[in-house]
Amino acid sequence: MHRTPRRLAAAAAALALGAALTACAGQSGTSAPSAPVTTEAASDVAGHNDADTVFAQMMIVHHEGAIEMAALAVERASDPEVVALAERIEAAQAPEIALMSGWLEARGEDVSPRGHEGMDHDGMQMEGMEHGEAMGVLDDLDGDAFDQRFLELMIAHHEGAVVMSEAQLEDGENPDALELARTIIDDQTTEIAEMQGMLTGS
């Protein structure tokens, strides 16, 4: 997809993806209602642009989709290696959701959905399917068939996260958000190779 449509799609997504943010935003390690913003969050507020905000909003929802798929795999997969991979995905992406939620909360962003549901965004589909469709496909499978389809769809899901992170590296400015984008690219590219190996038996 060309650069301009990607930016337009991402901008359209900005307000559509906020429902999940508030639930995760309080994981800063303090229970005080009026606790000051952490140093990391304060740094983020000091230097960011719209691309940084959209990246966090979209990636939170993207990560939540991966965690939902992974949770189903922990219950349903027959291969212990697939179960272990799914558990690692959950463990890695939940803290990243909390981190990005903290950034957005510190910025005071309006993250309520505003009627952009169903739009096509870079990285948000798997093999042309929305998340709900992909979950429906997985829910109908068991055993080896489930394992294979989960790996195929999670590869596509990870590839989407890489696309979104590459867009952040092009357009973002906040050092923390750029660092997270690089981490996502590195970690998920490694997992893509691992899942491809599982599919081919190598």
Automatic annotation (TrEMBL):
The keyword Signal applies. InterPro entries: DUF305_CopM-like, Ferritin-like. The keyword Signal applies. It comes from the Bacteria. Keywords: Signal. Residues 52-199 form the DUF305 domain. Residues 1-25 form the signal peptide. PANTHER family: SLL0788 PROTEIN. This is DUF305 domain-containing protein. It comes from Cellulomonas phragmiteti. The lineage of its organism: Bacteria, Bacillati, Actinomycetota, Actinomycetes, Micrococcales.
